Amino acid sequence: MSDTRTDTATLLTLTFVVSFCSFAYEFVYSELLTVMYGGTVTQYVITVGLYFFSLGIGAALSDDLDGATLGGNFFRTEVLLAAAAPAGFLLIVGLNSVRIPQAVPAELVWTVARLPVVVVGFLSGFELPLLTRMFDELDDDGSATPSLLRDAGTRIHDFVVAAIGTLWTVERTEGRRSGLSVILAMDYVGGLAGAVVYARVLYPGLGLIPTIFVLALLNGVAALVFVAHFGDWSWWPLGGDASSASPAPSASAAPDGNATASARADRSLSAARVSKTLLVVCLLLTATYAGVVAKHDVADERLSQLYLEQQIENEYSPGAMRATVTSQETTAYQHVIRYDRTWTGTGPNPYFDGRTEQCLRLGAAVQLCESWADSYHRGLVDVPMSLVEPGPETKVLVVGGGDWIAIDHLREYGVTVDHVDLDGEFMRDAKTDPFFRRWHDDAYEYDRLNTTVADGYRYLQETNETYDLVLLDIPGATDDDLLTLYSTEFYRSVRTHLSEDGVAVTWGYSPDAYPEHHKAFVNTVGAAGFTRELSYWVREDLDDDGETERVEQFYVLAPGERPRLTGDGATEYVRAREEHYGSVEWHAVPHYRGVRENSIFHPNYDILVDT
């Protein structure tokens, strides 16, 4: 067997790998919980807190593990982690895919969804103490640590001591560092590497599903490397010898002062006895994960497609609609999902039975469906254009609207348009995509259009322009990454950039379906200085029965009095529906007592909705 220094280098490498995996697992869970339940800050904070709590519990209980079988316990821990981490991932996905009876308390679902975080943290808590004790037995005289690592550690230590000595009283100590300090250093380096590689390589390059299997594969490989190097293979049919499996020098070959240390190493590391069943499990898991990683594109597409289809169908009454995901891609800012939805014949309106239409989702929110794509943009553009003059002197700002459809509607009025959207990749693809071209008719070529790829809030902070009309064609408040676009600061910037008679328009959630969101939204725009609101629904005859149905609700916001929609400047669209818009009146923006507005620095999470 290899010499003690090789054994120590192997332990240090394994420390780096298992720490890399442990930290990255928690980032995967944090992001997954954010995708499933929303609230990036909330999910990351709770996940990290639960992870370190369970990590501490595992470390505290590690002393109760049998010291005579440290190697066996470490191998067992790695196999359990390799099995538990992907299983926990699938558990979280499953909880968000099935219909959970309303009788089940939400707190129970919340708890179960976070059990994988606790399990992985608890098992990871065993790793560091086990590795430290094994390292101490191998490195009892300090000579086993590779000289390069020892010298580098000494230089770093001396530099840090000199730095902290400027503020604290320090005492320099001679001699080697303890096994704990060496293992801890490698553990922290592995944790940092896990964070950086996850954020810069794994998540953006592979996505969540392949990443969890890459990490589990690393855990499985780490377990196999450990047991191959340190294991007791005396049962192996090709021949094995427990004594030959000892990584430490024999007592007779060791210096007199190290005989006891070598004996301890023989008892602990060579006690990494290989359970045949556990070894088979580890080999099967590792082989399975290797196959998934090798075909990660297929696995990611198929698993995410199954989840998304189930999630979409769950938004409707059981059996009412069937969803088929046709394509999906992830830009730097959002997950873009195309799907066909087919009404199966059990819905409330028989006209829709058997109809299939194409829809688009951005993240968790439905963005566009064929049946209401035109009516939505009529409500966003053609209704509020009744409040401003058409022509090139009128300046309009569109925040969002990366599909260019709102621009096409504005082109009909000959106004000057400034357009700002964060996702340049999505905007570029929408230009040539046949689905969008049906609606925008190459509006990006409009000669009075100025498009800027930027964050809407930052754009308003930097521009000096004023606008007669501001259209907020932004995603729904389904994720706290969007809290800025629903904040007092953002709406205040919009108000500041309105002309003397200018108005701002946004679509809105129904106050009946989302009362908490509505109250927070209203108080937020009120705190931003908007004193008057005009609420209306866009209506269309969707089922050709001669009666119009309410499709989408919109709000026009203003810091003072404004004319009615059906005045002299009413658009053709509004005049044709005067029976609906003639009764729409301006009202004072209400204020709900006890409801805090949403601010960037003091967010009110009630403004987020659970779709």
Automatic annotation (TrEMBL):
The positions flagged as active site in the entry are: 473 (proton acceptor)
Its lineage opens with: Archaea, Methanobacteriati, Methanobacteriota, Stenosarchaea group, Halobacteria
- InterPro entries to which the protein is assigned, alphabetical: PABS, SAM-dependent_MTases_sf
Which ranges does the record mark as transmembrane?
A: 12-29, 41-62, 74-96, 108-132, 182-201, 207-228, 277-294
Regarding protein family, the annotation reads: Belongs to the spermidine/spermine synthase family.
**Which residue intervals define the domain PABS in the entry?**
297-559
Query: Any idea what this protein is called?
Result: Spermidine synthase
Which domain of life does the UniProt lineage start with?
Answer: Archaea
Alphabetized CDD domains for the sequence? AdoMet_MTases (cd02440)
SUPFAM superfamilies named in the record? S-adenosyl-L-methionine-dependent methyltransferases
Keywords, ordered alphabetically:
Membrane, Polyamine biosynthesis, Transferase, Transmembrane, Transmembrane helix
Q: Which GO terms describe its molecular function?
A: transferase activity
Q: Which GO terms describe its biological process?
A: polyamine biosynthetic process
